[in-house]
Design goal:
With about 220 residues, this protein is α/β, with parallel strands linked by helices. It has helices at about 10-20, 85-100, 115-120, 135-145, 195-210; strands at about 5, 35-40, 55, 70, 75-80, 105-110, 125-130, 150-155, 165-170, 215.
């Protein structure tokens, strides 16, 4: 599936670029069969009692690895900066999309986070994946006003997520917004290829199986 990049220097410019790049691959304006989960999580992925929004869920190690989306899953990857941790997450999401045959498009929100978030939503993806700490505060505002749009945040979390926002964190990650810092001591070294790969897989498994609005804490 094509992997396209959109640079959100402004909302108008972004949408123009979407139009220009949208001719070369699948047309997201055309409905397609709803994406479903292929496979099921292993025991220990979800708690016995469905968690409430804002809860922290600690899935068993690797319990998410048997789940993938059906081919053609439409995902907008929203990138907040060019830090080494964000770059590692982008690489993991890109590799996951290639492996699962997901239809991935990338939107940059580095210069104007709100414009980037809006541009990602305007693509009408089935899931918006957010990477990069600068996006957290803008996402907290925008996502609460667009409850019909599913978001997945990797390596960070919203302080008060709504049911449409799922996050994946681990020891060394967990930025929660300006003035709140991280849930644990930040460690750039914790953003390994394996950890970032597990983050996108566990997060998508949670979204596809309906366990949303929570923070997944990877072991």
């Amino acid at each position: 599936m094509p992997h396209r990049t959109v640079v959100a220097t402004s909302l108008v410019a972004t949408l123009l670029l979407v139009c220009l790049t949208g001719c070369a691959g699948s047309d997201w304006s055309i409905p397609h069969p709803a994406t479903t989960a292929v496979g099921t999580p292993s025991a220990g992925f979800a708690p016995a009692i469905a968690p409430t929004p804002e809860a922290t869920v600690m899935p068993a190690d690797g319990s998410w690895r048997g789940v993938r989306p059906s081919p053609g899953y439409r995902v907008a990857l929203l990138v907040g900066d060019d830090s080494s941790t964000t770059t590692a997450l982008v690489a993991a999401v890109t590799a996951w999309a290639s492996e699962t045959n997901a239809d991935l498009r990338t939107v940059s929100g580095a210069e104007d986070p709100v414009a980037g978030i809006v541009a990602a939503m305007e693509l009408h993806p089935e899931l918006v994946v957010s990477v990069g700490d600068p996006l957290i505060d803008p996402l907290a505002t925008v996502s609460a006003n667009h409850l019909d749009v599913p978001f997945l945040v990797l390596g960070a979390e919203l302080a008060e997520p709504t049911a449409n926002v799922t996050a994946v964190d681990w020891t060394g990650a967990g930025y929660r917004g300006e003035g709140l810092g991280t849930a644990t001591h930040f460690s750039e070294a914790s953003f390994t290829a394996e950890r970032c790969g597990d983050a996108i897989r566990a997060g998508v498994a949670a979204v596809l199986t309906g366990m949303t609005g929570v923070v997944l804490w990877l072991p």
